[in-house]
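Exam prep: given the inputs below (a chain plus tryptophan), describe the expected output before reading on.
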Amino acid sequence: MNETVVSGIRPTGKLHLGNYFGAVQNFLKFQDTYTCFFFIADYHSLTTHPTPAGLNDSVYRVLAEYLALGLDPEKCTLYLQSDVPEVAELYLFLNMNAYKGELERVSSFKEKAKSQPDNINAGLLTYPVLMAADIILHHGTRVPVGKDQEQHLEMARTFANRFNRLYNVNYFQEPFAIGSGNKLVKVPGLTGGGKMSKSAGEADSIYLDDEPEVLKKKIMRAVSDSGPATPGMHKSVPVQNLFDLMALVSAKDVIDFYDKSHTEGSIRYGDMKKQIAEDMEHFIAPLRSRIQDTLKNRELVAKAAKTGMEKARESAGKTIREVREIIGFRPF
Ligand code: ADP
Ligand code: TRP
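Solution:
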């Protein structure tokens, strides 16, 4: 089947392991096979009120990182959301058909409302509507994202179907989240809490350009527990997190060894962390050096943005013309 893949990352900081394994790894896989649109969700990042200079730097950085990690402007459409104003128009149309009650029930909204009580703006409430617009603007059917985005994808299907029903058309297709195998990925943070996240702070995240000493220090300080008291004890959440990190970068025999020593009750978390740090450095080293090089290449980054904008607007323009016609914005 001819799938169209769409996904974006907010320019809210440096890319980390969660972004890589939840999203970018699949972007790389799909760009060889499907029609792909990958973008930087800079409109979305306005919900947290970045400064103009901060916004500009972050957008540049994510685009440079996309390129450094291997996204190829020849193979996929790589663009900035704000370079495609058509998405704002589709967002407006979808907003007419999105209800306050359902938006208030979205977990990410509830979390944000709690964490930033002084800035519960309408953009935050309608975040999933803009995200649905991003996807269906290009008739996306597959959306590579991490587990945290599952509910947003459900909303995108709701809005696509609702548009079809309202206008009695079969115009938009349903988009589905896609992970690795049939599972959506959740990379844990290092501080024993939830998912690794750009906003959770330095100590919680492993960035794709972390220097070797920083990397090692962060991993050695990761939360674990004092060791299984009895053989066969269940893994606590922080210990399971360590195993999850190890699974991303270590070889199977290494993972099996630590798994067995946990079951036997002989595991030493210090050794395990040293091993993770070593394997992580092995994984990060080539990425770090490509990111550092690409960040310096302003011409390459600017050129990629321009090429991407042209391709994205072509696809978006077609959809918007058709949507306007469906809605009834027609010449007399
Ligand atoms: P963050 O939450 O760090 O600000 P974004 O919200 O911009 O990152 O997420 C960009 C992409 O990376 C999304 O597809 C998201 O699902 C994925 N992602 C972010 N953090 C993780 C994580 N810890 N594990 C798996 N995927 C993640
Ligand atoms: N909401 C996503 C996140 O926080 C980013 C995003 C915006 C996105 N629009 C999208 C992801 C469209 C996939 C498709 O990670």
